[in-house]
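task queued by scheduler; priority normal; single chain, no ligands, no partner chains; default sampling; output format set to structure tokens
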Amino acid sequence: MKAPTTGIIGAAVGDIVGLPYELRADRTKDYNFELKLNDYSDDTILTVAIANWLSGERTEQHLRQNLLDYSLRFKDKNVWGRGFQAWFESGGTIDRKGIASNGAAMRVTAIGYASDEIGEVLRLAEMSARITHDSDEAVRGAQSVAAAVMLARKGNDKDTIRRYIESTFGFNLNRTVEEIRPDYHFEILCDRCVPESIICWLQGNSYEQTVRNAVSLGGDADTMAAIAGGIAASTPGMGVPPTLAQPCFDLLPNDFKTIIAMYQ
């Protein structure tokens, strides 16, 4: 199957590009790092789970079942955070109140395609976050990413999107990647990596530059590149290069490919 170059493929490619440089592997703060396209992680699995949820009944019950089904299907893949793994292994019975990590934000790209109404996008993003990351910080992270995707694909310029996210969510997006990089380190809290991921897109002139920006910060590389890459691939003129999209797409299960192709 031919790989799409726009849509939620951007999140999957960012995940695959960043995965070798996540903390458990060999972190980098080198913008010119080697592209190692070998595997995907929970970022892609849960992005597809959310996309599949949106194609059916948009209820909390259906969402919970999709997150559980996809997670349990890949439970032996060494990509899960301990807290989230405990949640899905419990059948979703563990209380996740107060969890503020970036798992809520990494998987929401498809929500930016679910509606042309910003209020509905924000509602769906909040629902998607609270089921496993029940905190205002996680909701803020998920909503800001989904809103950026929706606003970008509708043709809003970067300055308009920057101002909307800053005024709505209180993030400081007036920094540069070069200013952030020297002192940045591995962060999983939404408020400490979602704004930086968005900045990587704001400063990127192409899809590849965007994901390289994200990985070069030396943080949670696969998640940050998935977030930034998902926004980039929704931006007119910033599609994933076919030479990057196709080898990443070919790594994915066939049903993932079918779902990803629905969101372009």
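post-processing summary
- The mean pLDDT is 97.
- Residues 179 and 217 are 10 Å apart (CA to CA).
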